[in-house]
Amino acid sequence: MRRLWALLLLLVPALALEAGFKDQDINGDGVPEKIAVTNLMDLAFDQKGQVVGWYVKTYKGTTFSDYTRAPNLSGNGPVVAPEGFTPEKAEFLVEDGRLLARFHGQEGTLTYRIEKSRYTVEIRADFPLSLKLSAQGTPKVLMEGQREPTPSGEGALRYLAWQTKPKAGYALVALAQEPLSGKLVGKEATLTLAAGEALRVYGGQNELVRFHVEGLLSLPGLFTPNIWGQLSLGLLWLMETAFRYTGSWGLAILFLTLVVRLLLWPLMHQQFKSMAEMQRLQPLIQKINEKYKDDPNKRAEATMKLYQEHKVNPAAGCLPLFIQMPILFILWKVIANYEFGQGLLWIPDLALPDPFYVLPALYVASTFLSTWLSAHGNKDLIRQSLFMNLIFIFLVLQFPSGVTLYWVLSNLIGLVQQWLINRSLKPLVA
């Protein structure tokens, strides 16, 4: 077991990275671009001060080696292209957790400020600047005074957006505190910034939680939550309320886990009880199978009679599972897509995988212990659980720490519930 665990750790690369800049040729023209490397995305700048590649990461905190296979928001040309600006020199700095790309020219200085744990880039110049923006996806523009976005427009713009899918895929959204002067024609937009005016550009997941975190969800026409989305927003409200009172995202996740498990307690109780009773009857079922191994009709009749005598419904554990699965899936998506920007104990950031693999190990251990409690000595079920855990660990290693923390806490609560159920079961009478 120790050797197998060590092998797994060697096969999985480190999942955290240090944000910074690197040089790499992304398009094969022989000229290296300057790439801003962050936890959620990488931005490639050319020598003209243009953003020629906007690469969104499927797994947070990982490193791209081949940018030709990475998800790229860039359309036919650069994502951001300053017009009438000729940089004479550039500097790339890391200050206070932010990446700064500054391009200096005779006109002045153009600055890109990139958050290492956000999908948002701030673009600012100390001189009047015209920018061209384009991206993959369907373009739309919301004009000042309009209630719904349109495929094109010119005048005072509230926001510009490109979305690859209506409620999935990726999105690029550009907006400022005040309406911007610009136009959208086809898939290309032109914006005019006054000296010192900041443009905020979001490029990342086209997803409800991400829009909520970035403050984009209130913009009309970008994302309309359905009933499951409204439930997600309710869970978000609970978690953020807990954080406001505790100041710790770890405690906020604990609070959210407790609330959800208390709400699901009756359903989980029914499921666990049914599973425990089924496993408890396995020795008697095996005797029936051996006794009537050549007569399937009598075997089925005797098995159903056994269930009736012990008041066990084989299907009782399925319905609670089907009811709770959508809620658990939504909760997983809420935590997985949230950006905490805060660590816990040895974890530097709950939005990224655990760099020391402690939480994945606790998750596997708690899952195995849960199986052991419900198996009632069924060695085949215990072996199957161990095998599944060893396979599943490759996925768990890539989960954000906040997600794994939720599952560990949820499993621990489930262990207590299973223990209470096992204590309440009456001794088996053959």
Largest sheet: 11 strands, antiparallel
Number of helices: 10
Percent helix range: 40-55%
- How much beta, percentage-wise? 25-35%
- The CATH class name of the largest domain reads Mainly Beta
How would you classify the helix and strand content by structural class?
alpha+beta
Tell me the domain tally.
Answer: 2
CATH architecture of the largest domain: Distorted Sandwich
Give the uncertain stretches in residue-range form: 1-15
In total, the number of strands is: 15
Rounded mean pLDDT is 79
Computed CA radius of gyration, to the nearest angstrom = 27 Å
Instruction: Note the gap between the termini.
Output: 37 Å
CATH topology of the largest domain: Beta-galactosidase, Chain A, domain 5
Order of helices and strands: HEEEEEEEEEEEEEEEHHHHHHHHH
What characteristic shape results from the CA principal axes?
elongated
List the helices and strands and how they pair.
Layout: H1 2-11, E1 20-24, E2 33-37, E3 41-45, E4 51-56, E5 80-83, E6 87-95, E7 98-105, E8 109-115, E9 120-125, E10 129-134, E11 138-143, E12 153-163, E13 170-185, E14 188-193, E15 198-205, H2 208-214, H3 227-246, H4 249-280, H5 282-291, H6 296-309, H7 318-337, H8 358-375, H9 379-396, H10 401-424
Antiparallel strand pairs: 1-2, 2-3, 3-4, 5-10, 6-7, 7-8, 8-9, 9-15, 10-14, 11-12, 12-13, 13-14, 13-15
Helix pairs in contact: 3-4, 3-7, 4-7, 4-10, 5-6, 8-9, 8-10
